[in-house]
Automatic annotation (TrEMBL), chain A:
<dbReference type="InterPro" id="IPR042100">
    <property type="entry name" value="Bug_dom1"/>
</dbReference>
<comment type="similarity">
    <text>Belongs to the UPF0065 (bug) family.</text>
</comment>
<dbReference type="InterPro" id="IPR005064">
    <property type="entry name" value="BUG"/>
</dbReference>
<keyword id="KW-0732">Signal</keyword>
<dbReference type="Pfam" id="PF03401">
    <property type="entry name" value="TctC"/>
</dbReference>
<feature type="signal peptide">
    <location>
        <begin position="1"/>
        <end position="21"/>
    </location>
</feature>
<protein>
    <submittedName>
        <fullName>C4-dicarboxylate ABC transporter substrate-binding protein</fullName>
    </submittedName>
</protein>
TrEMBL record, chain B:
<dbReference type="InterPro" id="IPR009936">
    <property type="entry name" value="DUF1468"/>
</dbReference>
<feature type="transmembrane region" description="Helical">
    <location>
        <begin position="58"/>
        <end position="78"/>
    </location>
</feature>
<keyword id="KW-0472">Membrane</keyword>
<keyword id="KW-0812">Transmembrane</keyword>
<protein>
    <recommendedName>
        <fullName>DUF1468 domain-containing protein</fullName>
    </recommendedName>
</protein>
<feature type="domain" description="DUF1468">
    <location>
        <begin position="29"/>
        <end position="174"/>
    </location>
</feature>
<feature type="transmembrane region" description="Helical">
    <location>
        <begin position="99"/>
        <end position="115"/>
    </location>
</feature>
<feature type="region of interest" description="Disordered">
    <location>
        <begin position="1"/>
        <end position="21"/>
    </location>
</feature>
<keyword id="KW-1133">Transmembrane helix</keyword>
Amino acid sequence: MLKKVLSLAVAAIALGTAGCAEQSVGESNEPAAVTYPSKTLQIMAPAAAGGGWDTTARSMQKAFQDANLLNGQSAEVRNVTGAAGTIGLAELVSSHAGNAHQLMITGLVMVGGVVTNKSQVNLTQTTPIATLTSESEVVVVRKDSPYQTLKDLLDAAKADPTAVKWGGGSAGGTDHILVGLLAKAAGADAKTVAKQYVAYSGGGEAKAALLSGDISVGVSGASEFTDLVKAGELRALAVSGGSPEDVGAGSPTATIKDAGYDVELLNWRGVVAPPGISDADRTAVIGLVDKLHASEQWKQALTDKKWTDFYKSGDEAKAYFEAESTRITSVLAEIGLGQ
Amino acid sequence: MTQPAPPEAASATPETSDATEPSPLAGLVAGAVLVAAGLGLFTRALTVGADRGITLGGPTFAPIVVTGLWVLVAIAYLGTQAARWRRRTTQPNAARPTWRVPIMLLALLIAYAVVLKYTTVGYVLATVAFYVGAAQLLSTRPRREVIVRDAIVGVVLSLTIYLSFTKLLGIALPAGVLPL
Amino acid sequence: MNAFGDLINGFGTVLTPQNLLYAAIGVTVGTFVGILPGIGPALTIALLLPVALELDNPTGTLIMFAGIYYGAMYGGSTTSILLNTPGESASVATSIEGYQMAKRGRARAALATAAIGSFVAAIITTVLLTFVTEPMARLAVSFRASDYFALALLAMVTVTAVVGASIIRGLMSLTFGLFLGVVGIDALTGQARFTFGVTSMLDGIDVVVVIVGLFAIGETLFIASRLRDLPEQAAPLEPASGFAWLSRADWSRSWRPWLRGTALGFPFGALPSGGAELPTFLSYMYEKRRAKNKDEFGRGAIEGVAGPEAANNASFSGVLVPLLTLGIPTSATAAVMLAAFSYFNISPGPQLLQNQGPLVWALIASLFIGNVLLLALNLPLIRLWVKVLQIPRPLLYAGILVFATLGVYAVSGNIVDVLLAYGIGLIAMIMRHLDFPIAPAILGLILGPLMETQFRRALLLADGDLSIFVTRPLTLTLLLLAVAALALPHLPKLFRGRRPVLSGED
C-alpha cells in the first residue's frame, strides 16, 4: 500500500516536471521520442510461479524498479501457465496487440512448444525485443559408463540406434532437441535415436533414473547435474554452448564442437512485446530493455541466479528468433515430433 | 468419561450417509448418461488408436483401457440401477434437492470468472459483488436483513486478499477501476 | 554419537532469537498457506525466495522454508476436517473420516489427533533423517521404472478399500479419476489426448483444479442444493474431555495409527516418484482394514484421521533424504528448496554433510523446533478453528467459493482452468447426490498417470520386452504382493470363525 502511494507520488512529481525533465530521463544520450513507460508495465511470465520464465520476469521487474528505469511507474508480473508458454503467447497476440506496456518472457522452449503443440500463433507474430540469458546443455553418463567421450557415445548410437537410452526433460523440449541434433550430426538414424529418449518431469526424476541405471545418458541444463558430477557419481561428456564450461568436474568440460560435431544449442530466454505496436513504441521498449541490461541491478541478478548473459536486442533479436524458429522446427520434424 | 466412541457416534446422528437415498429414476438416468459418455469416449480412443497405431508402449493404449473400463463399470452401474427401478416402491419424496440454487451459483461463478479475466472491473469490486450474490443465494433468511452484513464481510475479505496477494506474495490480481 | 554431537551444535545455531523468529514466521505463514486451496508451500516458497535472498541469512531462510512446508501440512488438514474441502491431494484421505468426525461434533478431537499425529511423525522421522540418510537415499534411487509400475499397481490394488460401500460406484469414481489423468499431452511422445482442441488442456488437468472442483466447489454446490434440509447450525461440539481434546479412548486409538502412518510415510517420501498421497491413502486403507469396528469407518473413525496425517508429515522428512544426500528433489517444494540452496551456493549432494555440515545440522535442528512451535501454535488454534463452524453458512460457503476461484485463477491466470474446476464441481455435486465416493477419483488421477508412465518407460527401456516385469526381483516381489493383496480379502471368509481372535490383539 505504502509502496503504491509512494510510487504514485513519484509519478505525480515526474509529471509535474515533465516539461523540463523530458530530455534527461534515464540520462541517456538519445532523445526519448515517447515517454515510456507511461503506466504500469505488465510482464507476463507464460509459466507457473517459481519456474525459469517466472524467475526471469520477477528479476526484470525488480531490476526495473531498483534501477529507477520506469519513470516512476511500477512493473507487475502476471503468470499465464500452460502448454510450454503457448497459452500466454496466444493471449499476447490476440488480446494485447498494440499495447506497448505488456511484455512477455519467451525462450527456446516456447519455440519448440509452438511446433509440438501445433499452436495457431508463433513467435514471429510478436514484436521481438531482446534475448537476455542463456544456459548450455550438458551430456552426462554414470561414472561406470563405458562411454568415455562424446564420440564413444555417438558411435554407439550410430552403430545401434536403440543401444543408448537417453533421458531428460519433456518430450520435444530442449533436451530432446539436443539428442536429435547430436544424432543427426553423428550421422545416426535421428528418428530412431530420438525414440530412445525418455521424458522425465523435472531434474530430480532424471537424476534418479541415471543413478538407478534406467537410462544410460542424461541431457539437461548445465547446472542440473553439477552436484553429482562434483561428487564423481556422473561424468560430463560435453556442453552444448559456444565455449567450454565447468559443470562440476573442477575443470572446463569441452563443447560438442570441440568433439568434432557441428552442434551448438543454447537454452535462451528473452522478451517480446505484442504485435502491432508503433515503431516509436518499439524503439522505446528496446531502449528500456537496453538500459535494463546495462544496469548494475541486472548484472547482480545474473550473478545471483548464475545466468549467462546473452544479450541481443532489436533487429538482432528478431533475426535470432527467426533463425531459431526455422532450425528448431526442422529438427523437430526430423525426429518425428513436428509437422 | 472414557467410553469408547462408537456407540455415541453412532447414535448422535441419523444413520443415513450424506445423501438421502437418490431416487431410482435419477440413478437410471445417471447410469444411461455414464454409459453413453463412456461409449463416446471409448469410440474416440479407438479411432485415435486406429489412426496412430495401438501398441502396448504407445500413447493410445492407456486411453483405450481407461475408457473401456469406464464403459464396463458404467454398464454394471446401469444394471444395478435398473434393478432398483424394478424394485422401486412408491416412496414419498422426502428430501428432494433444489436445483435452482446450485445452478444459479454456477452461473454466478462463471460470470465472476469472465469479469475477472475479460473486463477491467478489477478483483476487489468483482469479488465483493460475487460474494454478496453468492451469500444471498445461499441464504434462507430475508434479503434485506443480511445484505449489509454480507457486503461488509465481502469488502473486508476481498481487500485483505487483494492486498496480501499483490503486496506480500507478489501475485498480481487485476486492480481494475479502484485506485489501489 | 558423532551425529548426535553435530545435532547438538545444530540446536546451538538455531536457538538464537533471530532464527527462532524466522521459524515462527515460517510456521505461521505456512499454516495459513496450507488452509488456502491452490496456494501450496511450493508456490509460497518460490514467491518468498527473492525476499529471502535479500535477508542474506542462509540458515534463517532455510529454517523459515522448513517452517512453511511443515506449517502448510498442519494447516492443510484443518479445512479438510472442518469443511470437507482439502486444498491439496495429500489431505484428501484425512478428509474422509475427519469431516465425518466434525459433522458429529468431534471436530476438536479430529484436529487434535491430526496435529499431534503430525508432530509425532515429524519428530520420529527427523530422528531417522539424522541417522539413516545415506543408506536410505541409496536404496531409494535403486528403484527402476518397472519397480515403480509394480509399486503403483500394488497401491492401486490395496487402496480399492477406500472405494467405499459400493464397489461399482467406487470403481466408477476411480475410472473418472483415471480418465482425467489421461487428458493432455502424453508425457513420453508429446501427443495430445482428449484435449478436444482446447490448447489449455494440453498440459492435462492440474491436480489443484480437480481437488478444488471435487471438494471446495462440489461440496458448496451440494450444500446449496440441500439448503432446506440442512440444520441451521453445525452439530454442537461434543463436550471437551481428556488431555488436548482427546479422551483416553481417543489417545489409545490414535497412537498406533500415528506410528503406522509414520512408517508408511517416510519411505514413500524418500522415493523419487513416491509422493505424499500414496502413503496417506495406504495408511487410511490399512487402518480401515484392521479396525475392529469397521462400520465406524465412514462415520468418523479417529484412526482414519490419525494415520493419514502422520503419513503426510512423515513423507516430508522422507523427501529431505534424497534432496540432501543426492540433490534429487522429489516434490515441487523440494525443487524450490533446491533452487534456494543454489542461490546460497550450497550444493546438496554426497558432499553436503562434509562441506556444509553445520548448516545441514542447523536445518535438521530447525525441523525439531519448527514442529514444537507448530504443535504449540496448532493446539490452541483448535479453539479458534472450530469457531469457523459457527460462521453463518452463506458467509462461509460464499467465502469458500471466493478462495477456490482465487486458488485456481491467481496461480494459473488461465480461465479454462477455472471453468474446468467449476465443471468438475458440478459433476462432484451430482456424484454426492448419487452417493458416489469422491476420494477414489483423486486416487485414479494420481495413480493412473504414474502407472502408465512407468509401465511405458520400463517397456521402452527394455526395447519392448515384457519380461522386464518378471526378471527384476524387486518388481516381481511387488507384483506378487499385488496379487496377494487382491486375493487376501477373500481369505478371511474361509476362516470366518476364527476372525475375532485374530484381530483381538488390538
